Amino acid sequence: MSFGAHVIPAAQRAARSDGEDTRARLLRAALQLFSEKGFAQTSVRAIAEAAGTNVAAIGYHFGDKAQLYTATFYEPFGSGSDLIPVFADPALDLTDALSRYFAGFLEPLKHDDLVTQSVRLHIRELLDPTHVWPELFERECRAPHLALVQVLRRHMGVTEVDDDIHRLAFSLAGLVMQMWTQRDALQGITPQLATEAAVEQWVERLTGYALDMVRGDIARRQADAPPVRPARRGTSQTPRTSHKKASNT
After folding, report:
1. Residues 6+ apart with CB under 8 A from 181
2. Contact residues for 233 (Cβ-Cβ < 8 A; gap 6+)
3. What is the pLDDT of residues 46-90, one digit of tens each?
4. Which of 116, 79, 101, 123 has its CA nearest to residue 202?
5. Helices 44-51 & 65-74 angle (0-180, nearest 10)
6. Residue 131 phi/psi, 5° resolution?
7. Which residue, 157, 167, 170, is CA-closest to 222?
8. At what angle do helices 112-127 and 65-74 cross, to 10 degrees?
9. CB–CB of 135/127 below 8 Å?
């Protein structure tokens, strides 16, 4: 034990452990029920019963049903905005930035049951938005997208963000979404590619695919750029009017 460490009495440690366990059970029960039935059709009583506790525990740990619903989106895995400092650091080269981007967004795939429920919950929210949607859109969609756009712009040497930068960023994010939304298909067709151990190799492969996409877009931009005409040798830079004046003298 290090000097100055705070020693928690055994009874207090047990109470804290029980409280944390109750909160975790409520969160998992809520995630499952909300993902299956939606916000409106899920009662706090059903959540409490599934978690093996009482309704008062929801108020104690989360405040109310709406705040518990919000927590099911962010607490299991965090949000996309949490990853921005990880992959958008200007000190990173493009390979490291993209590798961190994919590693962060694919990390939840190591938790199969939670991922399935989380994907279902997000799809429900997309189809039938609730009070969570405005903040969810900002934290999970807009902010990470704009951060990735700036990473691409910086490393591609593009002065101003244009539609093609946005297209490229959406395409890279699509690689992540494919992994999330096609999880069941991946397990059914190639189960060896859906294991926890396979996630690390997916990160490596997707980073390589993304780099090829970036190189391809750079090449397209260079091919589409108008040719630069070299200056003609021996051409006088003196205005023609000066020649006329010189010939009349």
Report:
1. 119, 123
2. none
3. 999 999 999 999 999 999 999 999 999 998 888 899 999 999 999
4. 101
5. 60
6. -65, -20
7. 157
8. 120
9. no
Can you spell out the DSSP letters for 109-174? GG-HHHHHHHHHHHHHHHHS--TTHHHHIIIIIIHHHHHHHHHHHHHHT-SS--HHHHHHHHHHHH
Q: How far apart are CA 61 and CA 59, in angstroms?
A: 6
Query: What structural domains and CATH numbers belong to the chain?
Result: 19-69 (1.10.10.60), 76-222 (1.10.357.10)
Which pair of tokens denotes residue 72?
């099911």
CA dist 95 and 98 (Å) reads: 5
Q: Which amino acid is at 180?
A: W
Rounded to 10 degrees, the C-alpha dihedral 177/180/183/185 comes to -20
Quick one: tokens of 143? Answer: 């902010």
Render pLDDT for 103-158 as a digit per residue (tens, 0 to 9).
999 998 888 778 889 989 999 999 999 999 999 999 999 999 999 999 999 999 99
Q: What is the DSSP secondary structure assignment for residue 6, as one 8-state letter?
A: P
DSSP H stretches of helix in the chain: 10-37, 44-51, 55-62, 65-74, 84-87, 94-106, 112-127, 133-136, 143-156, 163-181, 183-189, 196-224, 240-248
What whole-number distance in Å separates Cα of residue 226 and Cα of residue 223?
8
Integer-rounded Cα Rg, in Å, for the chain is 28
Tokens of 234: 């021996």
Q: Answer for the pair 27, 75: CB distance below 8 angstroms, yes or no.
A: yes
